[in-house]
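lol forgot to send this yesterday, sorry. struct tokens for the thing we talked abt
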């Protein structure tokens, strides 16, 4: 079953009087249960693609079709994605409210998921700025999945974390994926991370998809010069 279809997507940023192209003719799809990696160097347009798909960036043309409601996003910097004015309990119950879950069930579901992502119940009354980076990313992941979205777009969700914490957060994300059954567009500039968790990979260079393949096949036999260069640089 299809979760997302993107066809001929181009996007621009305007600075002063120039409208600069950032994405050019991007086409791909994502099926149910898949973890699709999007890898490319910094500035290649990965975040712009994520933001365009979720309607956070508006200057684009092409076609984006969502087959599930309320796709969610996890950002690299949970400082910015978590609202500093609200407690964790609010952060976790708000998506349930937005999804129409009755008030009586919200608190219980939020507390259960808080526990599931490895955070103590006392933290429910705390604010994001009182947490460590890893704890904040656990909350950001919990908030993204709590209303059971069909699609989670994770934009460099572990890039700001220590390697040990990275591994824990990736494991958590993949465990929750299995339990909740969402599909994931997973963005990273780090091929090691992509290799660990993705079923299939899109390689982006200069705003275009230059290669697409199953993860094993891509790593075994990269075709595009840019992908070869990326793999060599990662060794
Ligand atoms: N808000 C913005 N205004 C103008 N240009 C931007 C903006 N955000 C990103 N860009 C430019 O768009 C290009 C792609 O950026 P981005 O999508 O953030 O790439 P990535 O996520 O792969 O690092 C870069 O050249 C970047 O400088
Ligand atoms: Mg980015």
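and heres what i got for the seq, position by position
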């Amino acid at each position: 079953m299809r979760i997302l279809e993107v066809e001929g997507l181009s996007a621009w940023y305007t600075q002063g009087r120039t409208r600069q192209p950032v994405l050019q003719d991007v086409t791909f799809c994502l099926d149910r249960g898949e973890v699709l990696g999007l890898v490319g160097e910094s500035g290649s347009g990965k975040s712009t693609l994520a933001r365009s798909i979720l309607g956070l960036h508006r200057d684009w043309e092409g076609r984006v079709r969502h087959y599930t409601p309320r796709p969610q996003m996890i950002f690299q910097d949970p400082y910015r994605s978590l609202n500093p004015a609200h407690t964790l309990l609010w952060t976790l119950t708000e998506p349930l409210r937005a999804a129409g879950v009755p008030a009586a069930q919200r608190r219980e579901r939020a507390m259960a998921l808080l526990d599931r992502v490895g955070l103590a119940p006392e933290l429910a009354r705390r604010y994001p700025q009182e947490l460590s980076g890893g704890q904040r990313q656990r909350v950001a992941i919990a908030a993204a999945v709590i209303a059971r979205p069909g699609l989670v777009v994770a934009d460099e969700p572990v890039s700001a974390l220590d390697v040990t914490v990275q591994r824990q957060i990736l494991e958590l994300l993949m465990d929750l994926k299995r339990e909740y059954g969402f599909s994931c567009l997973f963005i990273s500039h780090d091929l090691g991370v992509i290799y660990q968790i993705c079923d299939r990979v899109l390689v982006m260079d200069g705003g275009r998809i230059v290669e697409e393949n199953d993860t094993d096949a891509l790593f075994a036999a990269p075709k595009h010069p840019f992908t070869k260069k990326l793999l060599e640089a990662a060794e």
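The pocket of adenosine-5'-diphosphate (ligand 1) is lined by residues 13, 15, 22, 40, 42-48 (CB under 6 Å). anyway ping me if u want another try
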